[in-house]
Design goal:
It is a single chain. The protein has twelve helices and no strands. 83% of the residues lie in helices and 0% in strands. It has a single domain, classed as ABC transporter involved in vitamin B12 uptake, BtuC (Orthogonal Bundle). It is mostly helical.
Length: 281
């Protein structure tokens, strides 16, 4: 009850802001996470997520050393994630047998570049906040950016839903039907990069990929239809983020890890439920 009592206090605006950000980020993570899981590009999304640290480090360096105040860490994270996703996507389309190697290289380089920039950035840098997130420290400006980016991603997915559906389950069939699979695939990577930027505030760079994939993977234990999987994944994201925020506030835990641990527990239970249902069938 401590949480719900404090939630309505005037000075606890940060708590309400955290819940609103989670509420806005959950549908995007649920929709894009479902596409990532069904398309089996979780490792590619992970490389994009970790490469976002390179953009964050560059942005902070440019702000404090070159005085480019407009180059925000949010913009840097998006550029880092986008460049990594596009690079891996384009290369893997042309050289499929080297996909795992390319993903590993981008994954490692992105984080290393970011840490180097952070090392040479003067002043105090809360790099752990970027790595593991802290949704309780978000501002109204973060809430606005989350809403804008979330709307952009959801509208794009709605417009291209038939093509994304075909791409998710049968790439060859989609090509025969005239779908420009490579273009749609690269567009999916762009949507994934945007979603990762949203989740960095919620769970951090290290854990964003978990929040993107665990709810969708758990939802896959209950349904095989893409649209219903997106709905269940969105509901699970809301549940995980809300419970994680409450646990982090009441128990004084880091918010990102608290959210992801709860998501992991539900995913394991869902696997057990799926296994039991198969045995009974």
């Amino acid at each position: 009850m401590e949480f719900f009592t404090d939630l309505f206090r005037p000075e606890m605006g940060f708590l309400r802001c955290a819940l609103l950000v989670g509420f806005l980020a959950a549908p995007v993570a649920g929709v894009i996470g479902t596409l990532v899981v069904t398309r089996r590009i979780a490792s590619l999304a992970g490389a994009s997520s970790h490469a976002a640290l390179g953009g964050v480090g560059l942005a902070l360096f440019l702000q404090r050393v070159v005085h480019l105040e407009w180059f925000s860490p949010l913009l840097g994270a998006f550029l880092g994630a986008l460049l990594a996703a596009m690079a891996v996507g384009i290369i893997t389309i042309r050289v499929r047998e080297r996909a795992d190697t390319i993903i590993g290289v981008v994954w490692a380089l992105g984080m290393s570049i970011g840490l180097l920039f952070l090392n040479y950035t003067p002043g105090y840098v809360d790099w752990q906040g970027y790595l593991f997130g802290n949704i309780l420290l978000l501002s109204p400006a973060d809430l606005g950016w989350t809403a804008v980016l979330g709307i952009v991603v959801l509208i794009a997915v709605l417009l291209f839903y038939p093509q994304l559906l075909a791409l998710s389950f049968d790439n060859t069939f989609a090509e025969l039907r005239g779908v420009r699979t490579r273009v749609i695939y690269l567009a999916l990577l762009v949507f994934t990069a945007l979603t990762i930027v949203l989740l960095i505030h919620v769970a951090g760079i290290m854990l964003a990929i978990a929040l993107l994939t665990l709810p969708a993977a758990a939802a896959g234990c209950y349904t095989r239809h893409l649209w219903s999987m997106m709905v269940i994944s969105t509901l699970l994201n809301w549940l995980f983020i809300t419970v994680g925020i409450i646990a982090s506030y009441v128990l004084r835990l880091p918010s990102g890890p608290a959210i992801v641990v709860f998501a992991g527990i539900v995913y394991v239970l869902s696997l057990g439920f799926c296994r039991i249902r198969k045995i009974k069938a």
